[in-house]
Specification:
By secondary structure, the chain is mainly alpha-helical. It has helices at about 10-25, 30-55, 60-65, 70-90, 100-105, 115-125, 130-155, 165-185, 185-220, 225-255, 260-270, 275-285, 285-330.
């Protein structure tokens, strides 16, 4: 009997992040090099959002928006349900350091992923077109909604100052490149959709992680993190992903969505984007603050990939079994 379980290679993004952390611990950026690397990171983030704009077809987006109930449901999970969970997690202040607690709150405010949401929806044979539009729309709206939610939720008695100037920084560094990508997608759209975005998003995330962890090392804040807190974050992420996978499927079924839409809602509504969350965090917060804030998001990202990969494969096997039974029934 062939085993159901196969050994998969590690996610290249996770490998790059781990390498960035190791290098930052041993050789943190200091002085003029840290300043120059920070500028290079900002340019990489701007390029990433330019490619996001070049990749998204306005015609496809407008056509996909017709399924408004699907998109509103996914956006409600991303920007309403998750933030409410973040607000409800106030008791965690008592057992976690302030930076890690705020990192958990921040991860609940970030947009959904694009690549993995679409990939898992496709594997599970869900509504791929709907997933593409919903995930892209989540990232586009997140440019405004995430900093707004940070102002409303995280800036209340936490010591974090987020003023209106954040929206100017977001507009200049993220929104303007996105619009430029839309305007020039005739020439760059094909390359952005094929390989460009994947290369740049991995590279920019790696740069953000190295810059943030370097700032944390130089400031000495990593001495405050212990193994128990990391293990807690792993366990917390497993529970949160499992709960959201159940909640999204349960609500989607109660709202009368078909199987394909339920799968799209489940995989898009439970994700939190590392590719968008880290660059936005680097823009919204200072380098020292973001060095601890990004840890929960990085752990959550890896946990959601592993759990959703298993679930998507399970859905695919189930559908294959139903198709085989149907074929056998028609042939007999």
């Amino acid at each position: 009997m062939r085993s159901r379980f196969t050994l998969r290679p590690p996610d290249p993004l996770i490998v790059l992040i781990l390498c960035a952390v190791i290098v930052a611990i041993t050789l943190p950026a200091r002085g003029w090099f840290a300043d120059a690397f920070s500028v290079a990171t900002q340019l990489a983030i701007a390029l990433l959002f330019y490619l996001y704009g070049a990749r998204l077809s306005p015609r496809e987006a407008l056509a996909g928006l017709k399924h408004w109930r699907l998109h509103l449901t996914i956006l409600a999970f991303t920007f309403v349900a998750f933030p409410l969970i973040g607000i409800a997690l106030t008791p965690l202040k008592a057992i976690l350091s302030t930076g890690l607690y705020l990192g958990i709150v921040y991860l609940t405010l970030t947009p959904s992923t694009v690549q993995s949401s679409v990939a898992f929806t496709s594997i599970a044979r869900g509504n791929v077109a709907g997933a593409i539009v919903s995930a892209s729309l989540s990232n586009l709206l997140g440019v405004v909604l995430t900093p707004l939610l940070v102002m409303l939720i995280m800036a209340q008695g936490t010591g974090i100052t987020v003023g209106p100037e954040v929206f100017i920084k977001i507009a200049v560094q993220l929104l303007l490149p996105f619009v430029a990508g839309q305007l020039t997608r005739r020439w760059t759209g094909r390359w952005a959709a094929a390989t460009g975005t994947k290369i740049v998003d991995r590279g920019s995330i790696t740069m953000v992680v190295y810059s943030a962890f370097s700032a944390g090392m130089v400031a000495g804040i990593w001495d405050t993190v212990n193994v128990g807190e990391i293990l807690f974050l792993i366990g917390f992420s497993i529970v949160l992903v499992a709960f959201m996978l159940w909640l999204t499927r349960w609500v989607a079924a109660r709202l009368g969505f078909d199987r394909q839409d339920q799968i799209a809602i489940q995989f898009c509504g439970t994700k939190k984007s590392l590719a968008t969350g880290l660059p936005m965090g680097a823009v919204i917060f200072g380098p020292v603050e973001v060095s601890l804030l990004i840890v929960p998001l990085m752990i959550f990202h890896q946990v959601q990939l592993m759990m959703c990969s298993w679930l998507a494969a399970r859905y695919a096997r189930s559908q294959q079994g139903k198709s085989a039974e149907s074929t056998q029934r028609h042939s007999s």
